[in-house]
Design a protein that fits this description.
The protein has 2 helices and 4 strands, in the order E-E-E-E-H-H. With about 80 residues, the chain is an alpha+beta fold. It has a 4-stranded antiparallel β-sheet, covered by helices on one side.
Amino acid sequence: MSERRSEIDGWRADWRIDRHRIRIMLVRNLSEAQPLLSAATPAAAPDLADLRERFPELSRLWDAIRHEYWLEFFVPQEYSQGTI
């Protein structure tokens, strides 16, 4: 389970994929010292859906994470099985 990072609008989120769920490990405003959220372990980390409900004003950050998540599962058509 490797950690990924997404940044947009001065916000950064560190996240992991845990059994097809997106676990948010850290959320911080890059101009502030204290994080908005920090989780010590993936089991303690909230998932993307929970944070989307709790912090709707960060919807562009959540959308960026979701986009990167789906890129992990889709292979470009030219490399899909049966085309080579």
